[in-house]
Amino acid sequence: MNRGGIMKHLYQNKRKIEKAAILSVLLLVVIQSTLIGCAATADSRKHSGVATSQEATDIWHSYKILPNYRYYYSGPDAQPNFIIGIDDRYHLQSNIWKPVDLTPEKLKGWINFGRPRVGFSLDRYGAFITDSNGERIGLWYSMHDWRLLGSASVGENNQVSVTRPAMSSGRIKRSYK
């Protein structure tokens, strides 16, 4: 290849590199704009969390009923699958949770139904329910598998929605906060 051919080849490669760099920058701008747009158009519900916690487990395992909480359960009356307590500043919006006038005796019976758990298991069956700012708005307890967590969100006027995990799907949402 002569000197003119080499120069032409280098010029063409330089142009290709410049085009690739420009396209890369444009692609990044489009991705960033899309992410910002998604964040800006989120609905009015604030997403919160349900995170396993030894402290929450200890509250449940002390059979302490918090005076400013309303309690609910999901599952059979004699042996629920899940129990939640929601701070009374919030209002649960749900058709899947049954309200219960929880007593320490009833809680002890539910938690230890079938086999003693308190004092015998190190698993964290309890979790805190938090709002989008990380403020605690409730408690969660899973009777069967400490890794099964639902999700929660807070809407306008402190309306709370708490979902249960799909127990039959085999999917486990893990949270180690």
β-strand amount:
15-25%
User: For the largest beta sheet, what order do the strands appear in spatially?
Assistant: 2-7-8-4-3-6
**What is the percent of helical residues?**
25-40%
| Ends distance | 64 Å
* Stretches with pLDDT under 50, minimum 5 residues: 37-47, 168-177
Q: How many domain regions? A: 2
Dominant shape: elongated
| DSSP strand count | 10
Label the structural class. Answer: alpha+beta
Tally of alpha and pi helices: 3
Backbone CA Rg: 26 Å
Q: How does the major sheet shape up?
A: 6 strands, antiparallel
User: What are the secondary-structure elements, in order, as H or E?
Assistant: HEEHEEEEHEEEE
* Overall pLDDT: 76
Break the fold down into its secondary structure elements and pairings.
Layout: H1 3-40, E1 46-47, E2 49-52, H2 54-61, E3 69-74, E4 82-87, E5 91-92, E6 98-100, H3 104-111, E7 126-130, E8 136-142, E9 151-154, E10 159-163
Parallel strand pairs: 5-10
Antiparallel strand pairs: 1-9, 2-7, 3-4, 3-6, 4-8, 7-8, 9-10
Describe the structure.
There is one protein chain. With 177 residues, the protein is α+β, with helices and mostly antiparallel strands. It folds into two domains: 1-42; 46-163, no CATH class. The chain has three helices and ten strands, in the order H-E-E-H-E-E-E-E-H-E-E-E-E. The protein has helices at residues 3-40, 54-61, 104-111; strands spanning 46-47, 49-52, 69-74, 82-87, 91-92, 98-100, 126-130, 136-142, 151-154, 159-163. The strands form two sheets. A six-stranded antiparallel beta sheet has the order 2-7-8-4-3-6, covered by helices on one side. It has a four-stranded mixed beta sheet with strand order 1-9-10-5, with no helix packed on it. It is elongated.
